[in-house]
Amino acid sequence: MPVTIHDVAQRAQVSASTVSRALSASHLVRGTTRDRVLAAAKELGYQPNPAARSLITGRTGNIGIVVPDLNNPFYTGVLRGVQARARQSGYAVFFADGEEDPAAEEALVRAMARQVDGVVVCAPFASDAQLRSLAAVTSLTLLNRRLRDIPAALMDSAGGMRQVVDHLAALGHHRCAYLNGPNNAWSNRERRRGLRAAAARAQLSVVEFGPFEPKFEGGVQAADLALADGVTAIIAYNDLMALGVLSRLADRGVAVPQEMSVVGFDNLLYAAVCAPPLTTVAMPMEAGGRAAVDLLLSGIDGAGDGAGSHRELTTNLIVRATTAAARSHSVSDDPRPMAGRGSHG
């Protein structure tokens, strides 16, 4: 005979409704109870019937996530968190690439809405009006975009940037460059907000360049502009751009960190293994994905704190080998030929 939900309830010493919640909305069940139910289901080999559950609950058992660029490893980290939390709650995940196109994002969410119970939109390029319109079509949660009446998980980019500024100021830097990501990216606006406030407090002069594509090539392009301006430190919008900066500085014979300090954002795997290892702000990618799913499922279940509930996630500066005390003069002031200075490591 097939194992039923009542068999699992009897083994776990809970009600059948508790088993149902533990398997389909585990965030609503106390941890010890959930673990007992999951252990009982595993011991008995219980497999929920998705079609039957859908008929009973009116839900699909699926959620969606739209990211702006699947080629960016940052979003791979977010997806891992989304997948892990969804699996724990008994949901399957559909994902799609919005290609940094507001119209594509909107079309994808509307198409997904017919097949899922809700959608997480990660770092959306869509306008406020577009997002509010989508929130009327399906349960919606945002990641790294603040909108008053839509739930959101928000990584503290401004706080991370304040840590960067304090670090560079403590090393004696007085003039730095910031390489902007996309102008319409909420995270870029937050980084700039944190940068300007912290720089004013620390009396650090900042010159901004960009916007640039948030990719390796964007950093290569931006490095020459920063060098020509005589800064002693470069802060990149993300790690991919910072890696492009490091590559271009090596090509031009500028030693890092002896002649130029470089800082990124995200703390991708590449940041720890590049040469020299990159000082960067660790963004809680997987935790952000998990938090976004928690908010989405709470909204679906009607257990949230309201349509505009936001969850803040802390960021941390990871100091590695690309930052050091500022030189007494900038690279652009050095009379020696560029190729004759520093190491190429």
Q: Secondary-structure blueprint of this entry?
A:
Layout: H1 5-12, H2 16-24, H3 31-44, H4 50-57, E1 62-67, H5 73-88, E2 92-97, H6 102-112, E3 118-122, H7 128-135, E4 139-143, E5 152-155, H8 157-170, E6 175-179, H9 186-202, E7 205-209, H10 216-228, E8 233-236, H11 239-251, E9 261-266, H12 269-273, E10 279-282, H13 285-300, E11 310-313, E12 316-318
Helix pairs in contact: 1-2, 1-3, 2-3, 5-13, 8-9, 10-11
Description:
It comes from Rugosimonospora africana. InterPro entries: HTH_LacI (IPR000843), LacI/GalR-like_sensor (IPR046335), Lambda_DNA-bd_dom_sf (IPR010982), Peripla_BP_I (IPR028082). There is one protein chain. The protein has two domains: 62-155 and 285-314, Response regulator (Rossmann fold, 3-Layer(aba) Sandwich), CATH 3.40.50; 157-284, 3-Layer(aba) Sandwich (Rossmann fold). Residues 335-345 have low confidence and may be disordered. The chain contains 13 helices and twelve strands. With 345 residues, the protein is α/β, with parallel strands linked by helices. A six-stranded parallel beta sheet has the order 2-1-3-4-5-11, sandwiched between helices. A six-stranded mixed beta sheet has the order 7-6-8-9-10-12, sandwiched between helices. It is elongated, with a radius of gyration of 24 Å. Helix content is 44%, strand content 17%. The longest helix is centred in the middle third of the chain and has 17 residues, at 186-202.
